[in-house]
Amino acid sequence: MRIVQYNDTYEQVGGTETYCNDVLLNLEKRGHDVYMVANGDKAPRADNHLILPATKGKIADLRSKYFFNPTFYQHFKNTFSELQPDVVHLHHNRYHTYELFKALAELHIPVVQTIHDYTILCPSQYYPQPYFKNAKPCSMGKEHVICSQNTCVPLSRRLFYPILHDKKRTIVRSRIATFIAPTTKIKSFLERANFKNVVHLPFYINPENWSFDANRTVKNTILFVGRVEENKGIHVLVNAVVKLQQTIPDIQLLIIGKGAALSSIEQQIQHHQLSCIQLLGTVSHHEVKNYFTKANVCVVPTLDMEQFGLVGIEAMASGTAVIGSDRGGIPEWCIHEQSGLLFEPTEEGAILKSLKRMLTNHPLRMNLVRGGMELVKNKYTMQQHFEGLLDIYRNAKALKSV
Question: What is the DSSP annotation of 229-253?
Fold first, then answer.
């Protein structure tokens, strides 16, 4: 089967890109003809990675999200006409949606899409809302993501979001053969928002990439891997570690990633001379596994409705204990007191309490490590994932030929 994976960007920014690259490699190993198409300036591989132009600047980004661009439409049509895939698998597709769908429809190419976050349901997806001043609380609380009233964004945005965002959502609903939901949480939200043909297919762990070091000797070391952004809860974690240093003097926090909040954390480290925090910057996905073995605990402290949190099951597969915020799909793998500890990110002191329990209670931590490794082994397997994924591709192809 000839398959095209499409994502907005080639830049390695998170779990979506990690997943795309691994799916491509494993489909190739299974004998399929696979291509990766994304917008950017440079492709990681020359043999089967194709580049489409990237937009530059906020105005261009806004236009590419909500308006039709004939130039990009022609780029898409030429690219997919040349490749002639049996199916296109979309991932992030926030930009050039209209151009992409028009080109694929004219070429009669079936499309499936993995939903990696909640933006197709809610244009802000944030909860709680510290990002917009004077924003009203969303009427649906922390499960607000199918709200069409846009109450959690400023008035200036509320005027056009219901028109532009809802129109785009309608187009997406009508053009996709199957929506792939990695968690039951996002599946339920999609179905409540009238999305049809939604299939729950969890992400997976490649056992070749992750290994458990039973002889690790690290102590009181915490790891964060991801975008260093306010909505990822990075400041909540940093502030908790600073407070814990008073009772656990040898505590260490390793931060892997980059993002807009990085500069403020650097300033905080310099101002308070925080030697307990190390900023490691961008680390390749291959190297991340070495850092899991250097930590006792991996924390996923997001404030958003996190779709999945792939780093959590990667940590579990490495025998690293996990603490996660009670958001989105995180509770599906971070099962409180069984495979990890959950905390409420808006509750003052909640993350502090969880970190202290995990670091000072060795029997608890080891029980959760065992529970996490068992969960990954039973639920997030490669065989299960690729059997399901190939069934989805074949069904989409069959539906298109009817």
Answer: -GGGTHHHHHHHHHHHTTT-TT-EE
